[in-house]
Amino acid sequence: MTQAAPPKIRIRGLKKSFGTKTVLAGVDLDIYPGESVVVIGGSGTGKSVLLKCILGLLEADGGSIEIDGEEVVGLRGRRREEINRSCGMLFQGSALFDSLPVLENVAFGLLARKEIDRKEADATALRTLAQVGLDASVAGHFPSQLSGGMQKRVALARALATSPNIIFFDEPTTGLDPIMADIINNLIVKTTRDLGATALSITHDMASARKIAHRIAMLYQGRIIWAGAVAEIDDVDDARVNQFIHGRAEGPIQMTVEV
Amino acid sequence: MGALQALGRFTLGFIGRTGRLVLFAGSGVAHCVRPPFYWRNIVRQLIEIGYFSLPVVGLTAIFTGMVLALQSYTGFARFSAEGAVAKVVAISITRELGPVLAGLMVAGRIGAAMAAEIGTMRVTEQIDALTTLSTNPKKYLVAPRLIAGIIVLPLLVLVANVIGIFGGYLVSVFKLGFNPATYLQSTVAALTTEDVVSGLVKAAVFGFLITLMGCYHGYHSKGGAQGVGRATTNAVVSASILILCFDYILTELFFAK
Ligand SMILES: Nc1ncnc2c1ncn2[C@@H]1O[C@H](COP(=O)(O)OP(=O)(O)OP(=O)(O)O)[C@@H](O)[C@H]1O
Ligand SMILES: [Mg+2]
């Protein structure tokens, strides 16, 4: 990774609260071109909120997010749409359109750009489906007819079909069996490499993080408390990071368990 | 003090919600007139709202026409004005009962379904997904529904008018012993263009209100299945109340000279 280049995404002091509840309390994070960064952190720490703020799906309360040097906090309208065009997003719950068959789900982003016709879009969609290991026989199925793992793969295909140069993956392997999780991890590594894309992923799964990340950042209490290369994570002094990567209930991180 | 505070909070909340609704309606209408248009979605909604509402609206209309003939016959007998039955049926159906009852039936059917569908899309993040796929969700989801509602409700009401008047005819001719030809003649003589047109304008407004409420409550639903359920109820209740309220306003505009 040549870190001399300016970051693709530069986040400074990002804040977001819901009512009185502060979720992000000043996040700083740089993601360099072609890099794959994984954000880890406990449930409910605001990882999904972070992604939604970057994509403009939620409005940040304060701070700055620059994509390719352009400030996107508070950006709306046409310019925001143009920036989102270069982004792909895999949602935590897949978020497939359940009124449309698989093929149309995957072709959706391609057709929305109005640059190619339906036939070309369908061909690209089928090719992307093949990349994620799904053949043409599922193309006509509706999302509700697929298993959770297949839905994830369709959602992955949908995120990749437009060849985005920034891709966000929100918990791509949660809820999958270990083998399918590994298949998805490999797909993410391979497809982002093939596209030369910059990737920001979220996961609680350390095996998955080690596999897909160049760098890992840990979000805790609304801030990034540690960020560094994958190889360094086992030598970190921070007790909170240690607790998380080894998955121990005892330690400085106290999960509030509501009864 | 407590009561005053509560009143203040209620007023502010009400103004806030109304403002949000008006903004939503405004941006929805703006998307209706600015390209791109999602023709496929518009056609789908036309069929969903129009074609599939035909049985409900038709049944409502025929019974309304029948009951109207019977009621006005027995009621008017007191003033020996039974001859007015055809006129009463024709005018009440076209001006008032056709649009209002069709509107209320469609509000129940479509308002609920629309709020549930869009609400589910909201809570499962499909609306966010649209945004990330270079598609404006209001243009894709809201505008086609508004357009379809405005176009299709007048058509439904036209059908309801015909069926309702036919219902009145059936009862008058076969039960009350009116002469078929005279009955039809007095129906045609009673109707003015204004009666029919005012009813159709009402229908278009109701179509807008029904789809707007379905979209609005669905679009802003939160909190999983329960939130979607609440959105569904709110859509139907608010659409029904707005229909009755705008029915008065429009009648006032048309006829109170
Ligand atoms: N639209 C919203 N309105 C109110 N609160 C929200 C909203 N979205 C998220 N939150 C709150 O923000 C916090 C962080 O949510 P988020 O979904 O980002 O968690 P997460 O880190 O992705 O967790 P998980 O790993 O379980 O997905 C949660 O406590 C949640 O209640
Ligand atoms: Mg999440």
Automatic annotation (TrEMBL), chain A:
The GO terms describing molecular function are:
ATP binding; ATP hydrolysis activity
- Specify whether Transport is a keyword of the entry: yes
> What Gene3D superfamilies would the database entry show?
P-loop containing nucleotide triphosphate hydrolases (3.40.50.300)
Q: Which PROSITE patterns match?
A: ABC_TRANSPORTER_1, ABC_TRANSPORTER_2
Q: Which UniProt keywords apply?
A: ATP-binding, Nucleotide-binding, Transport
> InterPro entries given for it?
AAA+_ATPase (IPR003593), ABC_transporter-like_ATP-bd (IPR003439), ABC_transporter-like_CS (IPR017871), P-loop_NTPase (IPR027417)
Family annotation (Pfam families) = ABC_tran
- Its domain of life reads Bacteria
Q: Which residues form the ABC transporter domain?
A: 9-246
What is the protein named?
Answer: ATP-binding cassette domain-containing protein
From TrEMBL, chain B:
Q: One GO cellular component from the entry?
A: ATP-binding cassette (ABC) transporter complex
UniProt record similarity statement: Belongs to the MlaE permease family.
Which keywords label this protein? Cell inner membrane, Cell membrane, Membrane, Transmembrane, Transmembrane helix, Transport
Record's superkingdom? Bacteria
Give the transmembrane region(s): 51-70, 146-171, 200-219, 231-250
Q: Where is this protein found? A: Cell inner membrane; Membrane
Q: Give the organism's phylogenetic lineage.
A: Bacteria, Pseudomonadati, Pseudomonadota, Alphaproteobacteria, Rhodospirillales
Question: Quick check: keyword Translocase in the entry?
Answer: no
Q: Which residues form the signal peptide?
A: none
Keyword Hydrolase attached:
no
Function in brief: Could be part of an ABC transporter complex.
Q: Which Pfam families match?
A: MlaE
**What is the protein's membrane topology class?**
Multi-pass membrane protein
What protein name is recorded for this chain? ABC transporter permease
What molecular function terms (GO) are annotated for this protein?
A: phospholipid transporter activity
State where it is primarily located.
Answer: membrane
